[in-house]
Every structure is written in structure tokens, then in C-alpha cells.
């Protein structure tokens, strides 16, 4: 079982370096043996389901949690014993945490005042920051009168006005409605490009992560499963978990028949059919999981001789979803595959025998992995979009979270 | 249960019971009859007599000073106690002593302080009364402030620290303002408690006479209509204070802005 | 230094309040109580007045005489009656404010507590006047033909009882109100829906649900009432001695061991009562949250 970590190819030293970080809460590890490097100027997302440890990791970088083991270096300096106010990072909190007894301008200039910046300079900096988040001129407004989106932008301005080396964002868009979220995602991305600040973005929404990030780190149960560009994660997931979490996927149990040889392997599925797939070339495993993205499969009528990159089965269900058609094909022995096609010409009805055709490079074999229960050959039909979070409940963080005693 | 008339009647009767002595007080404060048994005409002589008496003036002055001092001290120490609950073992001690100070009869508290202070040679006087009042006032401040703090999230404090504030600055610039309503409310409550306090003052005052003590002395030995006048005056002042508090509470968010604008002008 | 769970270098500031609080609690609260404990077990030479410290029960023996015991039981009785009566007459009013005052809830509540803001002394004094032989109450009763001769309502136990009930009523009403208000009205609706009469619904739904409030109220009435000092003094006309008065006398006359022993006795009683109440309620945050 390999955990892929993309090597640091950048020439400049990492802005943030986490080395073998662990954090244990009452017996169970929230984060275990996590190592990560953030490069200068990149948009990095930590992606994972709730409870995977991504927020804990962020808080350890910010300074609100202390790792039980490992090192944290920011700009080459060991910050383990440094309190949050002494770290060159700023955080945008999930529920914004704006100071309601101060107005917008005073909120934004808070950090500058702590640094002792003169009044005139503060005013200028605040004006610029607010302009960047498209809230120019709103300095005198009260927090209570702001909409969710506006509050979010004030929180952002408040953080970036201090010109931190890293900006930490803890699921900042969670409390916004869908449309606003989409707009903010684009804005955040553009802002990051403009400022050139390294962003560490924590989210459970894989679509969001793929959309905005230069690199994504997928976490599960306290461990980093894979780090790479969105393309890498999508096309070459390192584990069944990543394949299942990022985008929609068919993940089938498969036995190795031949190979792997020069990147290719011949597999036998549970229903007896064989396919050729690409793999990372590690030998030794006799079984594993085959990952097939639904949109990479084409349907042809009639069962043609299988082998190579063809599978045959009977259409069980067919859905028309506007721009796409979705087919659930039963291949026998309870093996099912979901295919997504744009072919809107003549629909194939349920009960018809079809062939599933795909490019072997698009079939990715993970030696030693076990398909997750929710994705046994079937992608969960949450929405009609081709790329959705599969099988994971959207946690909607409540703004009025229960308090911890301070 | 549409309209429970028996309950309404009962409520009226009970409120009557509650207010009877008060009304009696107010009426008699302007009643020319010294003994308050029959109405003998309207007069303000009791007020004049009360407020021109040097004893009353001095007692009032003492009461106000004691109340101001003990309120300030208890706000400081009470809030400190709430902050001090963060350390687990200390929290137990603090909570226990807070509960104790409210439930244990005042007599016991006051006398234990008296015994202690006398043993170490501390003479009774202004300071001892303030100490006594502060002792039970801090308990009320702690409760009210703690209740307010329990409803707050750590997020804003963390945000302040994240933005560069030290622990002290984060408290001073953020937390304090968030609990300010509780501080103001408890401050008022405690001020009034102190003004009205009898038991602790009785045992811990040396030659310092507070208003309640003065009145206690008056009524011990004779019927004194001055007391009615005094009582009504106190009630008026207290009501005004309470009304101001309610108003202040309501106007808090709005008022702050104007205050700051005035400051920067 | 990570014993105290420090995260950063300046965590000591975070924990400073804890130490400061202990610093002021110790001399002003913990030490006095400790002193009480010590004195309660000391001996005093009654001729010279000198107190010598040891661990004896001589003070306790001295107070175990009939006067003290009588005062003790009288106090318990008085506190008990006060608790009972305030509960009885306070419950309906709490119920009224919680369920039937609607928009005027705040006002109704304030009206219950308003008398609290009038000087305690003065209210007691007013009662003395009202309850006197020629006072208003007697005259009303006479006029209504309910009695044939004025009855002694003041300068005796009755007056004290009335004063106690009057003074402690708000303390009982508040927790009751709080817990009554917290009851989901749909529970009652469900009960009525299932065919229960108003009375049954009350006894089997409302009352049990509001019991934390009742226990809290009973506690914050009973315990302080045990040590009540002013009311017996004013309304008892110097003839009624309750425990509080007794303690006051003993301690102000420098018969400290005895006074301390009495105080300790009340303390133990109070702690027992608190323990009982906490046991019944679980977390006693209730009564506290009620002190507005």
C-alpha cells in the first residue's frame, strides 16, 4: 500500500513544514504522523471528511493546538512553543469570529493596532484591504448589519491586512448558500493569485478543493492519504479512499491475472471478466481495487467479445439528466458499473445488453486496496452533476456552535 | 385552560400582599400622623426632618462610599474569579466558595470574618465593612459573569490572539467587552445589595454607620416616621438606578458607537 | 514547565487569574472559615475570658443546653415553615407569570422582586406597623368581622413567620418561574390530548418537570432562613431568638468557642442541605442561573 507524496520540486524553501506531527485527544489520535510542506505562493487545500483531522492540523499551524509529537516550522523557524500572536500566520475562522463591539474598520485594523502601526498607515492599509475584498468604504458599518457574505469578506480583510506568510482558512464558506459559495470560491482564488500569499484551505467539499487549489492533501482518520495536484488526485488516486472521496468513481474488487508489466496489468473481476488496466508498477499484490471514472466509459450496444478494455453487461437503470445520461450496468455476480455519457442520440433502454469501452490508461489499479462499502461498483447518485462528493454527508457547521469554557 | 380567572384573582391578591407594606410606607411618609394609624393630612415634614439630620447625611455618605468601594472591588475580584476557573483544581475551590457565600447564612459569614480579622488585630471600621460586603458581592458577580461567559465561544478570543494580541490584550480588547453587559448588570445589583445590607454591616462596622444601620437604630427603640421617608427615598433612588440599568442594557450596542465618536472628535 | 498544561511561553498569564483568585479567597473566605473550625474546638476560661486552643468538645458541651437546643429547633421549624409557605403561595404566582403573563412576563417578574429593592429594614418596620394592635391588618380583620378582638400579630413568632415569608418569597418564585418557563407547552397539550384533566396534567407533567426549580428554591430559602437575624430581631421585638440571633450574641460577646461551634453547626446543616439538593438535582446550576 503506497502513500504517494509529491516531492518538493520548488526551488524556494517551504513556507510551512510539518514533520511527523501527531495530536492525540483522550486516547485516540486526531492527527498521526503527518508530514507536509507548503510552498510559497501556492493554494493548498486539506480535504477530508469531518473528523479526519484537517481542522486540528490547521489549528496546530495557527498555534491553538500543540502537537504531541513532531515539529512545525514556519519560514524555517520552529514555532512549537510560540503562541498564536507570535506566528506569521493569520486565520480566517469558520464562523468569522468578528468582534461585534467594533465596527468593520476597527475589526480589520485590529492586528495592525496590536503591532503598533500608526493611525494614518492603519487607515490606508484598511482601505486597501477592504478594496481587495470589494468592501471599499464600509469601514464605519456595524458587524450586526452585515450579511453572511460581507462578514466573510471582513474576516478575510482582517486577516490579510497583516500580510501573513500563510493564510489559514478553516472551511470559511461553509455557512454560505450555494450560489454565494461559488462566487466566493472564484473570488478567493483570484485574491490569492493577486496577493501571492500561501493559502492553506481546509474543506470537506472535494469540488471546492479541486476547483481552487494548486495542490490538495487528502486526509482520512488523522493521516494524509495523498498529496498532489487536483489532476493527479483525480486520475491517479493513491488509495481507494481518495478514489472514492474525490469525484465519482467505480471501485471494483479485482484479482491480478498477469503482470504488472511496464505499467499494465491484467485483472479478473468478480464476475469473471478480464480487463487491462494501468497501474503504478509495484509488484507483489495479488488483488486490489480497480478505479474507473464513470465519464471515461463509453457504451456500445450488443455484447461484443470481452477482453482488453471491454466489459459486457445488461443495463439495469438509465437516467436522463439533461446534458448527460447515466447508466447502471450489471455485469453479473452483483458487479455493477455506473457510466456517464454525453451521447443523447438514441437512448439505450434498461434490459439491453451493452459493452463498456474505455481506454486502459483511464482504468487505474490499486494493488492491495479494498473497495469501500459505499462504492461497490456504484457511485452514489447524490446530485445530477458528474463530479460530486460521493456517499459523504455534508456537514453543515452550525454558526452557534456549543461553547467551550474559556 | 382558556382564562384561568382564579389564578388571576390570586395573582392580584398576592401582588397586593407584596406591595402592601410598600404602599403603606409611601403613604405614611407623607402622612402627618406620627403613628401612621390614621390619615391626618399631607405633609413633607418627615422628608425635611430626615434629610436635614446630620446623622442621616453622614450615614448616607458612608453607605455610598462603602457601596462604591465594595462594588468596584467585587467587580474586579469576581471577574478574576471567573477567569480563574480555567485551571481545573482551582475551579472546584472557586465554585464551592461561590456557592457557599450565597447559601451560608450571612451571619455566619460576617462573624467568621470578624473573628478572623479581630484575631489578627485588624480593627473594625470602614475597611472591614467593605471587606465584608465585597465578600458576598463577589459571589453574585461571579455567577452572573460566569453565566455570560458560558454562552461565549472561544472563537473571538482565538481570533484576537491570531491577530497578534497577547493573552492580556485579547482579554482587555475583546473578552472584556463581550462580558460587559454582565459586569454592568452585576455591578448594579451588587451596589444595591451593599446599600441595603444590614447583617454584615452590623458586625463589621466600627464607628462607621451606614444608612441601614442608622435606620435599624431608629426603629429599635421608637416609632419614627422619618424611617418611612427615608425608605421611600431609597426606593425612588433604587428604582431610578434599575430603570437606568435597563435602559443602558438596551442602548448598549447603539450607545457605544456614539461614545467612541465623541472620543475621537 | 508543562505540569499545568502550558501550550506556549506566555501561558502563565492565562493562569494568573487562578492564582490571584486563590490569593484573595484565602484570607477573606477560607481562612475565616478555618478559624471558625479551630475556635469551635477550643476551650475558654470563663473567668478570665482567655481562649486556649486544643481539640476539645467543651464548647459543644456548653451549647448543648436547653436554650440553644430550643432555639435550634425553633429555627429549623421557622425555616421549614417559611420554605413550605413560600412554596405554597409562590408556586401559583410563578405559574401565573410563566404561563399566563404573556407579553408582561418581564414586568410581572420585576413586580415580584421590586420590594426587594426597598430597604430591608424599612419593609420589616412597615410590617411592624401593619401588624400592630392598632395596625391596618387588625383593623381590616375587625372591620370585616373575622375577629372580635385584635390579635397579636407582631412581636411574636407569628410576626416573624410573616416577615420571613414576605422576605423570602421572591427567592422561591424565581427558580420556580425559571423551570416552569422551560417546560415545553406541547407536553401539556399532549397530556390534555390524551384525555387528562387540568389537575392531572399538572400533577403528572408540570410538577415533576418543574421539580428542579422547586428544589432549588427550597434550598435557597431554607438555608439562609436558618440563619436569619434581622427579621426575628425587628418583628420579634427582642423576644424571639432564632439561631442567627444566638450566634450573634455569642460571638459579639467574645464567647467565641461557643459562637464558633454554633456557626459550625449551621454550616454543617447547610452543607447537608446543599448535598441533598445537589443529589436530587444533579448539577445545581439552576438556582444560580436564576439570580438573573
Characterization of this structure:
The complex is a heterotrimer of chains A (406), B (265) and C (292). Chain A has 406 residues and is an alpha+beta fold. Chain A contains nine helices and 20 strands. In chain A, a hairpin with a 2-residue loop joins strand 17 and strand 18. The N terminus and C terminus of chain A are likely disordered. The C terminus of chain B is likely disordered. Chain C has one domain: MetI-like fold. Chain C contains 14 helices and two strands; from the N terminus they run H-E-E-H-H-H-H-H-H-H-H-H-H-H-H-H. The longest helix of chain C is centred in the N-terminal third of the chain and has 35 residues. The N terminus and C terminus of chain C are likely disordered. Chains in contact: A-B, A-C, B-C.
Question: What can be said about the biggest beta sheet of chain B?
Answer: none
**How large is the count of helical segments of chain B?**
11
**Under the CATH scheme, which architecture of chain C would be assigned?**
Orthogonal Bundle
State the separation between the terminal residues of chain B, measured CA to CA: 59 Å
Task: Name the structural class of chain C.
Answer: mainly alpha
User: How many strand segments of chain B?
Assistant: 0
Shape of chain C: globular
Kindly identify the CATH topology of chain C. MetI-like fold
The largest sheet of chain C has its strands arranged as 1-2
Mean pLDDT of chain C, to the nearest integer, reads 75
Largest sheet of chain C: 2 strands, antiparallel
The greatest interface between two protein chains, and residues involved on each side, is: B-C, 84 and 81 residues
Derived structural class of chain B: mainly alpha
Helicity level of chain C: over 70%
Distance between the termini of chain C: 40 Å
CATH C-level class of chain C: Mainly Alpha
- Radius of gyration of chain C, whole Å: 24 Å
Order of helices and strands of chain C: HEEHHHHHHHHHHHHH
Number of helices of chain C: 14
Contiguous uncertain segments of 5+ residues of chain B: 253-265
Strand content of chain C: under 5%
In short:
Chain B contains eleven helices and no strands. Chain B is mostly helical.
Supply database-style keywords:
heterotrimer, A: 406 residues, alpha+beta, five-stranded mixed β-barrel, 20 strands, 21% helix, disordered N terminus, C: 292 residues, mainly alpha, MetI-like fold, two-stranded antiparallel sheet, 14 helices, disordered C terminus
Amino acid at each position: 500500500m503506497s502513500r504517494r507524496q509529491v516531492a518538493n520540486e520548488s526551488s524556494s524553501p517551504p513556507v510551512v513544514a510539518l514533520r511527523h506531527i501527531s495530536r492525540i485527544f483522550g486516547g485516540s489520535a486526531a492527527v498521526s504522523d503527518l508530514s507536509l510542506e507548503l510552498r510559497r505562493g501556492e493554494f493548498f487545500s486539506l480535504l477530508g471528511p469531518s473528523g479526519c483531522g484537517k481542522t486540528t492540523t490547521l489549528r496546530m499551524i495557527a498555534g491553538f493546538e500543540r502537537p504531541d509529537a513532531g515539529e512545525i516550522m514556519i519560514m524555517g523557524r520552529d514555532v512549537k512553543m510560540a503562541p498564536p500572536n507570535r506566528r506569521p500566520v493569520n486565520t480566517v475562522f469558520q464562523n468569522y469570529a468578528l468582534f461585534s463591539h467594533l465596527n468593520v474598520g476597527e475589526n480589520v485594523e485590529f492586528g495592525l493596532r496590536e503591532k503598533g502601526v500608526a493611525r494614518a498607515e492603519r487607515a490606508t492599509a484598511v482601505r486597501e484591504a477592504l478594496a481587495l475584498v470589494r468592501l471599499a468604504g464600509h469601514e464605519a458599518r456595524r458587524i450586526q448589519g452585515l450579511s453572511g457574505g460581507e462578514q466573510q469578506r471582513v474576516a478575510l480583510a482582517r486577516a490579510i491586512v497583516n500580510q501573513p506568510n500563510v493564510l489559514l482558512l478553516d472551511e470559511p464558506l461553509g455557512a454560505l448558500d450555494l450560489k454565494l459559495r461559488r462566487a466566493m470560491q472564484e473570488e478567493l482564488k483570484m485574491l490569492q493569485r493577486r496577493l501571492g500569499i500561501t493559502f492553506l484551505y481546509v474543506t470537506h467539499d472535494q469540488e471546492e478543493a479541486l476547483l481552487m487549489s494548486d495542490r490538495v492533501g487528502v486526509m482520512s482518520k488523522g493521516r494524509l492519504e495523498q498529496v498532489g495536484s487536483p489532476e493527479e488526485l483525480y486520475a491517479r488516486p493513491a488509495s481507494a479512499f481518495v478514489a472514492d472521496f474525490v469525484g465519482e468513481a467505480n471501485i471494483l474488487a479485482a484479482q491480478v491475472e498477469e503482470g504488472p508489466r511496464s505499467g499494465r496489468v491484467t485483472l479478473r473481476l468478480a464476475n469473471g471478466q478480464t480487463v487491462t488496466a494501468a497501474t503504478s508498477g509495484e509488484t507483489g499484490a495479488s488483488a486490489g481495487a480497480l478505479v474507473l471514472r464513470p465519464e471515461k466509459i463509453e457504451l456500445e450496444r450488443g455484447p461484443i467479445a470481452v477482453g482488453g478494455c471491454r466489459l459486457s453487461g445488461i443495463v439495469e437503470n438509465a437516467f436522463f439528466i439533461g446534458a448527460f445520461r447515466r447508466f447502471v450496468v450489471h455485469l453479473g455476480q452483483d458487479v455493477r458499473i455506473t457510466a456517464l455519457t454525453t451521447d443523447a442520440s438514441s437512448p439505450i433502454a434498461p434490459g439491453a445488453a451493452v459493452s463498456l469501452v474505455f481506454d486502459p490508461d483511464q482504468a487505474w489499479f490499486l494493488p492491495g486496496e479494498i473497495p469501500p462499502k459505499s462504492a461497490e461498483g456504484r457511485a452514489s447518485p447524490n446530485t445530477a452533476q458528474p463530479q460530486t462528493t460521493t456517499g459523504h454527508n455534508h456537514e453543515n457547521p452550525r454558526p452557534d456552535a456549543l461553547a467551550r469554557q474559556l | 385552560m382558556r382564562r384561568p380567572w382564579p389564578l388571576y384573582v390570586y395573582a392580584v391578591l398576592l401582588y397586593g400582599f407584596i406591595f402592601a407594606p410598600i404602599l403603606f410606607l409611601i403613604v405614611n411618609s407623607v402622612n402627618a400622623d406620627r403613628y401612621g394609624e390614621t390619615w391626618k393630612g399631607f405633609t413633607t415634614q418627615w422628608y425635611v426632618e430626615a434629610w436635614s439630620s446630620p446623622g442621616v447625611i453622614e450615614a448616607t455618605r458612608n453607605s455610598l462610599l462603602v457601596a462604591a468601594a465594595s462594588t468596584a472591588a467585587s467587580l474586579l475580584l469576581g471577574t478574576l474569579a471567573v477567569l480563574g476557573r480555567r485551571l481545573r483544581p482551582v475551579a472546584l475551590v472557586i465554585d464551592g466558595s461561590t456557592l457557599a457565600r450565597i447559601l451560608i447564612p450571612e451571619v455566619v459569614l460576617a462573624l467568621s470574618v470578624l473573628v478572623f480579622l479581630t484575631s489578627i488585630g485588624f480593627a473594625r471600621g470602614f475597611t472591614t465593612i467593605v471587606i465584608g460586603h465585597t465578600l458576598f458581592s463577589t459571589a453574585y458577580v461571579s455567577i452572573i459573569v460566569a453565566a455570560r461567559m458560558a454562552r461565549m465561544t472561544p472563537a473571538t478570543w482565538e481570533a484576537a490572539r491570531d491577530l497578534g494580541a497577547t493573552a492580556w490584550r485579547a482579554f482587555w480588547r475583546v473578552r472584556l467587552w463581550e462580558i460587559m453587559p454582565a459586569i454592568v448588570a452585576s455591578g448594579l445589583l451588587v451596589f444595591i445589595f451593599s446599600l441595603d445590607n444590614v447583617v454584615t454591616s452590623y458586625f463589621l462596622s466600627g464607628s462607621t454607620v451606614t444608612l441601614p444601620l442608622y435606620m435599624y437604630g431608629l426603629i429599635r427603640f421608637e416609632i419614627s416616621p422619618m424611617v418611612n421617608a427615608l425608605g421611600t427615598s431609597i426606593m425612588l433612588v433604587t428604582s431610578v438606578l434599575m430603570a437606568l440599568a435597563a435602559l443602558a442594557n438596551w442602548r448598549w450596542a447603539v450607545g457605544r458607537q456614539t461614545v467612541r465618536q465623541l472620543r475621537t472628535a | 514547565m508543562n505540569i499545568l498544561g502550558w501550550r506556549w511561553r506566555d501561558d502563565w498569564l492565562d493562569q494568573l487569574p487562578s492564582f490571584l483568585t486563590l490569593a484573595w479567597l484565602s484570607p477573606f473566605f477560607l481562612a475565616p472559615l478555618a478559624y471558625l473550625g479551630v475556635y469551635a474546638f477550643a476551650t475558654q476560661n470563663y473567668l478570665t475570658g482567655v481562649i486556649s486552643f486544643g481539640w476539645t468538645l467543651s464548647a459543644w458541651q456548653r451549647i448543648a443546653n436547653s436554650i440553644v437546643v430550643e432555639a435550634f429547633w425553633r429555627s429549623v421549624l421557622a425555616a421549614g415553615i417559611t420554605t413550605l409557605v413560600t412554596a405554597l403561595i409562590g408556586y401559583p404566582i410563578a405559574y401565573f407569570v410563566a404561563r399566563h403573563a404573556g407579553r408582561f412576563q418581564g414586568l410581572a417578574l420585576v413586580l415580584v422582586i421590586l420590594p426587594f429593592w426597598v430597604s430591608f429594614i424599612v419593609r420589616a418596620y412597615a410590617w411592624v406597623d401593619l401588624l400592630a394592635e392598632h395596625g391596618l391588618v387588625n383593623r381590616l380583620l375587625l372591620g370585616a368581622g373575622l375577629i372580635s378582638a385584635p390579635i397579636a400579630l407582631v412581636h411574636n413568632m407569628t410576626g416573624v413567620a410573616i416577615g420571613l415569608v414576605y422576605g423570602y418569597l421572591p427567592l422561591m418564585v424565581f427558580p420556580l418561574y425559571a423551570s416552569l418557563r422551560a417546560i415545553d407547552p406541547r407536553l401539556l397539550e399532549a397530556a390534555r390530548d390524551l384525555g387528562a384533566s387540568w389537575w392531572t396534567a399538572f400533577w403528572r407533567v408540570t410538577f415533576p418537570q418543574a421539580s428542579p426549580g422547586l428544589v432549588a428554591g427550597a434550598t435557597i430559602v431554607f438555608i439562609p432562613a436558618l440563619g436569619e437575624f434581622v427579621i426575628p430581631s425587628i418583628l420579634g421585638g427582642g423576644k424571639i431568638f432564632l439561631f442567627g440571633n444566638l450566634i450573634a450574641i455569642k460571638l459579639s460577646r467574645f464567647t467565641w468557642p461557643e459562637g464558633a461551634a454554633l456557626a459550625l453547626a449551621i454550616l454543617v446543616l447547610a452543607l447537608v442541605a446543599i448535598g441533598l439538593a445537589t443529589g436530587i438535582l444533579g448539577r445545581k446550576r439552576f438556582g444560580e442561573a436564576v439570580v438573573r
